[in-house]
Amino acid sequence: MSSSGPFCTAVEAKRLVENLLSDLRTLSTEARKKHSQVKEAAESGLVKIKNISTASNEQNLLTNIRCASAELLQPLILGCSTRNARLVQVSLQAIQKMVQHRVIESASAHIIVNELWHLMEAECEELRVLQTLTPLVSTELLVTGQWLAKCLVMCFRLNFAKDPIVINTASATVRQMVNCVYERVIQEDGLKGYDMSTIHQTVRIHAKAPPPALRPCALDGYMLFH
Prior knowledge:
There is one protein chain. By secondary structure, the protein is mainly α. It has two domains: 8-104; 107-191 and 208-225. 76% of the residues lie in helices and 0% in strands. The chain contains eleven helices and no strands. Helix 6 (106-121) packs parallel to helix 8, helix 7 runs parallel beside helix 9 and helix 8 runs antiparallel to helix 9. Residues 1-7 and 190-207 have low confidence and may be disordered. InterPro entries: DCB_dom.
């Protein structure tokens, strides 16, 4: 059983590389006629992934992809920015895979959140936006604070979309996000060991300010309903 972990990681890394190569090839092909900038970025991403794959072994492949995540995201963000349905679909599909394989860094996650916001405002691929938000929030601590709040606002706004499927999905996504936030609090061990009387006094005096002793996940949980 002890060897299954590294084996699974190696298989997952190989699968991620294959999927990203496939998505970037598709992006390059679909963007060929009208979106040359996306095409060039996708081809650059293909070269980057191939170089990383060649220079890496099974143990450090995912780590090396994570280190290059900002560069690898560039063609995907550009694809989303076109608002072309097909390019957005392919780009979000690749982003979801990167998030699920935990190869996105926090700074890059913020870029993704902003692009999802723009897609929401443009009413472009709303269902896929929601499908991307779910793993983005539930994977590690990629989005916290204002970025987590922005993800929740997107879900609330998509509750007023025109498509009933989008509305139902948005409602379900909000519930998932709230559950995720409080699961984080439990894992972080919340306020254990802190002076509760001091926190209560702070809340009374500064009604809108969070207690200063809260840890990051507990702070997110507190701010959800304050």
